[in-house]
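[agent] plan:
  1. take the single chain provided in the ticket
  2. run structure prediction with default settings
  3. attach structure tokens to the ticket
  4. add a short note for the reviewer (M.T.)
[agent] executing step 1
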Amino acid sequence: MSQIPMTVEGEAMLREELKRLKTEDRPRIIQAIAEAREHGDLKENAEYHAAREQQSFAEGRIAEIEGKLAEARVIDITSMPNNGKVIFGTTVELINVDTDEELRYKIVGDDEADVKQNKISVNSPIARALIGKEEGDVAKVNTPAGTAEYEIAQVEHL
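[agent] step 2 finished; step 3 output follows
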């Protein structure tokens, strides 16, 4: 079994979603199925089929989350000494060598990645290029537009 790296926040987010699915969504869907059954003929009952589809989706997501949590390796970056090296969970300030554009990313697990919140997957090309580098190093990242170079300005353990 391979372990899935996850931040403390990522684990909390999945546990919250799991709790919501089990305590709110599942009972609501069961109630909707029961109400749809009361309407009679199930073959042509769109409400029944929609509720069963929702139930299938919710149960699948519950199983998926439980599997991920069972295989999770939760990494608390705040408990590790900051030696200026980019590792899973660190927040990295970058400077594009060509444009001087400043970027800031947190390297997280696949389920936590959200570019709008500046969280990138540890498996993304930019994160793979950064892992193991230190403050002051330059990382080369292959992008669709060509190779981009980023200087690592700061590494934080937040």
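[agent] step 4 note for reviewer: The radius of gyration is 22 Å.
[agent] ticket updated
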